[in-house]
């Protein structure tokens, strides 16, 4: 059994989702979203993310954290801001001595939908089915966070299977 906290980093919203993998069965335990105020200074927003993540990690006690890798979009300013948010998320996990795994958006889409080019809506629908949820988690950041956690569960399960077969 392993408890995985998936994180979809951002500056306005940080989606999070805690799942448990137990003998191949995935169970959703909790999910939500950390939000920051758009008109706040960048350093204040990062502080909110760091302190909120630290509280979350202490309360949920995951065995590991799975975070989406930064992808470079056309807007470098946005990529840098998201990179800063991802940095404080990694720091909060390190401060709690919790191991971190990272997955690219393409790897997450491929693990959840079977194709790395799946649209956001398809990821939401698939994660709802895979985790036996009644509806697609909102906002999209929470559905993405659950998908990132499930990706790690599948990856963890595959590594464990391969280790047993050696």
What features would you describe in this structure?
- The protein is α/β, with parallel strands linked by helices and 166 residues long.
- The chain has one domain (2-165): Nucleotidyltransferase, domain 5 (2-Layer Sandwich).
- 51% of the residues lie in helices and 22% in strands.
- The chain has five helices and five strands; from the N terminus they run βββαβαβααα.
- The protein has helices at 42-60, 76-95, 105-113, 120-130, 140-165, and strands at 2-8, 13-22, 25-35, 64-68, 100-103.
- A five-stranded mixed beta sheet has the order 3-2-1-4-5.
- Strand 4 (64-68), helix 2 (76-95) and strand 5 (100-103) form a beta-alpha-beta unit.
- Helix 3 crosses helix 5 and helix 4 (120-130) crosses helix 5.
- The relative contact order is 0.21.
Any descriptors?
single chain; 166 residues; alpha/beta; Nucleotidyltransferase, domain 5; 5-stranded mixed sheet; globular
Low-confidence stretches: none
How large is the count of helical segments? 5
Mind telling me the CATH superfamily name?
Ribonuclease H-like superfamily/Ribonuclease H
Described by strand count, sense and barrel closure, the largest sheet is: 5 strands, mixed
Per DSSP E runs of 2 or more residues, the count of β-strands stands at 5
Proportion of residues in helical segments: 40-55%
Query: What structural category characterises the helix and strand content?
Result: alpha/beta
Q: Given the C-alpha coordinates, what overall shape results?
A: globular
H/E series, N to C? EEEHEHEHHH
> What average pLDDT do the residues reach?
91
Q: What fold name goes in the CATH topology slot?
A: Nucleotidyltransferase, domain 5
The top-level CATH class is: Alpha Beta
Distance between the termini: 21 Å
Counting structural domains, the number is 1
Rg over CA atoms, rounded to whole Å, is 15 Å
Strand content: 15-25%
CATH structural architecture: 2-Layer Sandwich
Strand order of the largest sheet: 3-2-1-4-5
